What does this fold into?
Amino acid sequence: MVTETREKMVRTAALLLAKRGLQGASFSEVLAASGAPRGSIYHHFPEGKDQLVAEALALAQARAMDELERHRGESAPDVARAFVQLWRDVLLASDFSAGCAVVAVTVAADAEPLVEKAAAVFREWQGILTDLLATGGVPSARAASLASLLIAASEGAVIVARAEGAIDRFDAVAEELVEVVAAAGEVSG
Amino acid sequence: MVTETREKMVRTAALLLAKRGLQGASFSEVLAASGAPRGSIYHHFPEGKDQLVAEALALAQARAMDELERHRGESAPDVARAFVQLWRDVLLASDFSAGCAVVAVTVAADAEPLVEKAAAVFREWQGILTDLLATGGVPSARAASLASLLIAASEGAVIVARAEGAIDRFDAVAEELVEVVAAAGEVSG
It folds into this structure.
């Protein structure tokens, strides 16, 4: 039960970060949205809000990693499609009200350790995507830069889609990305 | 003099948005950073903070548009290089502490009109980039989606670079983008 409360608070913080940014994910908002009792804050997160945010980032990281792992061994374009789809799902499920918790922390954090945590998530995604793209047929010299392109363009396309409240330009970007990855694989093959 | 104070407040708000996000661009921060007298707030911005933020967005939009206009008539890869360079300059000039004011507003705004303003900036950039890429040799059917890719990937790469405090992955993304645009032009030629 105690563990459930804690997990619920972390999930709620991740959602609030994705929807309303770093300042929107305050303890009081997390309590209100998760229904956790006030006393649970310092019981579960003795180091304060930064600890809660760090765990929300870890959750966001793990979700993407788990989803990507499911596509290990698939062709590079399929891996690219899966990564893009992950973000498309976030946009559609939230009616364009949610984006990426890692982005939210990066653009608003004034605490160095939190930004370092965000960087660590990007590095993890970069690592697994590079690996999956290379395994899926992209020349290894190119896999890292295509992984960087996938991450950057997906994150940016999520932001544009949120601003516009429409999926069109996200889909245009996604199509370009899959095509670039496919072309890189063909050159090698 | 009055106009100078007003302009300085808008410039300061744009910088604070780019550096510290929407909540970091409060009136008190803008006053502290711009040295404007307290009374100037409601004199210059009777509609409050949202008015100031909207004008900061308009400034960010105009800066990018002016810079892009200077490259009208150049080849599509040169246009892509110029757009990417604009963001690279922001990162390096700020030692990775600043990003894009439009992104900052999108991921943290809870006011619909501000998000609509952010969307309008993205649309303006999309319009001019599509135009310049088509003029620069990209087939017109492809120009819009490549413009979307350029905007999304640049914005995302800025965020990753800020998190990491390093330019490497930004440069990898930039190189991929220029290459994609160049290849699209060759197909048409």
